[in-house]
Amino acid sequence: MKTKRLNRDLKWGFQHYPYYQMDMDNEIFRGFVSVIMLTDGEQFFWDFEKAGKVPVTGGGMVWLQLIPKGKKRLITAMLKPAEGKKDYSVSVWYVDVIEKYVYDSDGVAVYWDKYLDVLATPQGDVRIDDRDELDEAYQQNDLTKVQYEEALEECDNIISEMFADFGKTEENCLAILHEAMKMIENREYQLKLNG
Fold first, then answer.
1. CA neighbours within 13 Å on the CB side: how many for 70?
2. Could you tell me if 91 and 79 are in contact, meaning their C-beta atoms sit under 8 angstroms apart?
3. Antiparallel, parallel or unpaired: β 2-5 and 109-120
4. How big is the CA angle at 97 (ends 94 and 98), to the nearest 5 degrees?
5. Residue 81 β-bridge partners
6. Which of 66, 103, 115, 169 could form a disulfide with 133 if both were Cys (CB 3.0 to 4.6 A apart)?
7. Residue from 9, 70, 53, 11 nearest 34 by CA
8. Which pLDDT tens digit goes with each residue over 126-174?
9. Residue 144 to residues 74, 113, 137, 166: CA-CA distances in angstroms?
10. CA distance linking residue 14 with residue 7, whole number of Å
11. Predicted structure pTM score
């Protein structure tokens, strides 16, 4: 399994953007939360059948990353400024199936990626990515049979729990973002990098 840092400094080059991480434990959400504020930069798009081209990076966007307590998933809600409003809307969800997360020597959360990903849009797209990588990792004994089966089960749970009602999932993400922004304003985060 690969380990990846939640501040996304290696793959995406986000080292210059404000990054906050915190634990949240309230009626809105229980678990790990991080926020990356994309203050500038060109837009980069992904294509989906129903949603068409959707932005995943670009100035003004926010990445909200969530690891719900007791779940083996990292939810990244890529949020774009809502048209004509001061709020945001979900552009796309990218959900990694993970084994666990810990903190590195810098205090940044690091997760163990179990290859399988679920991508979804508010318009109704749901796509499973990297099943071939999961199968290959299992065949090469990089994953045990239990870990392999847990990854497939978590993938099914992500789809049934999050994407049976896209509107509710978006509403929940925006409520968590609102709470996280209040925590940031009140300096109730555990770590801030950049900005």
1. 4
2. yes
3. antiparallel
4. 120
5. 88
6. 115
7. 9
8. 999 999 999 999 999 999 999 999 999 999 999 999 999 999 999 999 9
9. 21, 14, 9, 33
10. 7
11. 0.94
Give me the phi and psi of 114, to 5 degrees please.
-100, 35
Structural tokens at position 171? 């509403």
Nearest to 26 by CA among 185, 170, 179, 187: 179
Residue whose structure tokens are 């986000």: 14
Angle between helices 131-139 and 145-162 (to 10 degrees): 160
**First-to-final CA distance of the chain:** 32
For residues 190 and 107, is the Cβ–Cβ distance under 8 A? yes
* Residue that the structure tokens 């009602």 belong to: 165
Please count the residues of the chain.
Answer: 195
Indicate the residue type of 74. Answer: L
Tokens 């950049």 belong to residue: 194
Structure tokens at 82: 């809502």
Read off the tokens for 132.
Answer: 């071939």
Q: In this structure, what are the phi and psi dihedrals at residue 162, rounded to the nearest 5 degrees?
A: -100, -35
Q: Where are the alpha helices (DSSP H) in 18-139?
A: 131-139
